[in-house]
């Protein structure tokens, strides 16, 4: 496991502000920032704040952040980008008053999956995206009681070309308000997961 310095990445779109506090990166999102293409809503939003660096095949990226959301569609996690129409964002999003763990996979148009995570607010969430073969596997966990909340949860398995040039790293968006501040506590690269299922 190798920590990635915050200075290594390049922003897709500059946040309102960026500050370092010890080992953490504090990012203030711009109001209206988001990433989405067409499906159901009919619009294309390409204004997310994603701090990206190259992600090689057969490797994984992990992003950790403190979950503290309050407004509709506040979101943070990990972003993987191939091009304007091929990207994945995965993490936690505040939707209809509830924090949900999920992913948006975009291949020309976006889809969205989300499942509620009770009791995660105020804690450190880690999202892991692992490239292996023709897929990326997204998992997440929250700091907590070992053997319970600390276990990795499978979030998504999505197609990703083995030879794709991918950049990945932390992201956040604030589609509906100003003042969202996200504390990112870690950005790491590791070897890809050995298998999709434990024990395989």
TrEMBL record:
Pfam families: DUF1349 (PF07081). SUPFAM superfamilies: Concanavalin A-like lectins/glucanases. It comes from the Bacteria. InterPro entries: ConA-like_dom_sf, DUF1349. This is DUF1349 domain-containing protein. It comes from Microbacterium radiodurans.
């Amino acid at each position: 496991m190798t920590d990635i310095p915050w200075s290594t990445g390049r922003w897709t779109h500059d946040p309102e502000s960026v500050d370092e506090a010890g080992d953490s990166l504090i990012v203030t999102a711009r109001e209206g920032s988001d990433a989405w293409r067409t499906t159901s809503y009919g619009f294309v939003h390409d204004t997310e704040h994603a701090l990206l660096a190259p992600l090689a095949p057969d490797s994984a990226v992990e992003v950790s952040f403190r979950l503290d959301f309050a407004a509709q569609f506040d979101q943070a996690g990990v972003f993987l980008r191939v091009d304007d129409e091929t990207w994945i964002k995965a993490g936690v999003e505040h939707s209809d008053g509830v924090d949900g763990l999920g992913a948006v996979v975009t291949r020309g148009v976006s889809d969205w999956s989300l499942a509620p995570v009770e009791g995660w607010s105020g804690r450190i969430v880690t999202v892991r995206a692992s490239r292996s073969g023709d897929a990326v596997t997204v998992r997440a966990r929250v700091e907590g009681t070992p053997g319970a909340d600390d276990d990795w949860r499978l979030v998504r398995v999505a197609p990703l070309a083995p030879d794709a040039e991918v950049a990945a790293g932390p992201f956040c968006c604030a589609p509906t308000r100003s003042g969202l501040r996200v504390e990112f506590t870690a950005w790491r690269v590791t070897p890809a997961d050995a298998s999709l299922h434990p024990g395989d």
